[in-house]
Amino acid sequence: MTTWRNHPALVEWLAGAYVSGALQGPARRRFEAVCRQDPAVAAAAEAWALRLMPLNLIQPPMTPSPATWKAIAQRTGTASSADTPASHRGQPLAWWRRLLMPIPVATLALGVMVGILLPNLWQAQQATQKTLLPDSYVGVLATADGKPGLIVSSLRHGLAIEIKQVTAVALTDTQEFHLWRIDKEGRLTSIGPIPNAKFARVSLPEPAEKLFFTAVELAVSIEAKGSQPASPSQPFAYRGLCGKLWQ
Length: 247
Known about the structure:
alpha+beta, Immunoglobulin-like, two-stranded antiparallel ribbon, about 35% helix
């Protein structure tokens, strides 16, 4: 019997809609049920989760409302009452508050999805015997005022970086952007100048594995055109986390 699972293009579309949250209601529940049974469909959803993972870092945090905290307390049996000693009132709720600190909405959705799909992903890996996405470094940088700014990516052993500019920052004719690596100790290392363009590909002086292995953040400063700065000359125009997309 022919079903949508026999059509790769349709599987891709449904997996993308599921991970992005566009697939709702009964259709979403049916897709989740198929993922538990079909490693190939689960693998397609995992691939989309990896593609969209960088967006988690640029989503605004969502703080639960007081009504949400109250509902959590009631459903977990931690609601305070007149019979509860004053010294203990609010303690369980405080614990839940710490547990549910503000996190990006997309991260929460991804966590729920991984909880559903995780039992099937190992099966999918064994079934496909291939890497769904190439090993890569990805940096998601925000502007100084917190807007999504740049997405910087490179293959793990690549000799170039791909740059997508989400929010432009103005430069004069005598200025250019300069990319920096920041390690876990906060030390800065110059990577080099990058274009001020919506999309750009820039050659690297060394393989990405060597340049970005110690990076926990990437940052971009505005420098005089043609200069070779030893350190940023002014506050960063863009800055954000750098992650490794492989196990």
